[in-house]
């Protein structure tokens, strides 16, 4: 399905696809801040730490108000509880480091993958396969 979409896009825009690997591109020209780490090593927990930290701390006031009003923790579904359990353990220092890593990746990405063009604003279109084409119910644990 994805291959068919890319073929249609190629024909419509009169362009040719270039298949490449982010990890190979990174290994060919890594940013200095990566200190020799592979892409996977460098971004190992970056998005994870920012996301879960914020998912937990965004509701600090709600949890405090609920405890004050009802004398107990609020009920949340198993997925939210899972996220809160993880987010409660991520320190602000870990979050700041993760944010720095993401900013470094973003700058590297714009310099090495999605280069800007004065004519078209970009020299690339990126099509990534993402996820599976099946339902993912929010109250069921991940396999």
Give the rounded overall mean pLDDT: 91
Give the strand content.
under 5%
Rg of Cα set: 21 Å
Low-pLDDT stretches are none
What's the helical proportion of residues?
40-55%
Shape call: extended
Estimated structural class: mainly alpha
Largest sheet: none
**Pattern of helices and strands:** HHHHHHH
Count all strands and give the number: 0
Explain what the structure shows.
- The protein is mainly α.
- The chain contains 7 helices and no strands.
- Helix 4 crosses helix 6.
- The mean pLDDT is 91.
Explain the layout of strands and helices.
Layout: H1 2-13, H2 22-28, H3 39-42, H4 46-57, H5 60-70, H6 78-87, H7 92-112
Helix pairs in contact: 4-6, 4-7
Task: Spell out the key features of this protein.
143 residues; 7 helices; mainly alpha; single chain; extended
Summarize the structure.
With 143 residues, the protein is an all-alpha fold. It has 7 helices and no strands. Helix 4 packs across helix 6 and helix 4 crosses helix 7.
């Amino acid at each position: 399905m994805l291959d068919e979409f890319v073929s249609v896009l190629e024909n419509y825009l009169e362009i040719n696809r270039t298949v490449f690997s982010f990890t190979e591109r990174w290994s060919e020209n890594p940013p200095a801040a990566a200190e020799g780490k592979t892409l996977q090593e460098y971004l190992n927990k970056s998005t994870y730490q920012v996301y879960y930290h914020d998912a937990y701390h965004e509701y600090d006031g709600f949890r405090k108000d609920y405890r004050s009003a009802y004398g107990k923790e609020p009920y949340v579904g198993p997925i939210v509880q899972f996220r809160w359990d993880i987010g409660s353990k991520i320190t602000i220092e870990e979050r700041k480091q993760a944010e720095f890593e993401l900013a470094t990746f973003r700058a590297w990405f714009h310099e090495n993958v999605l280069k800007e063009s004065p004519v078209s604003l970009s020299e690339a279109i990126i099509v990534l396969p993402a996820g599976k084409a099946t339902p993912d119910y929010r109250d069921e644990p991940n396999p």
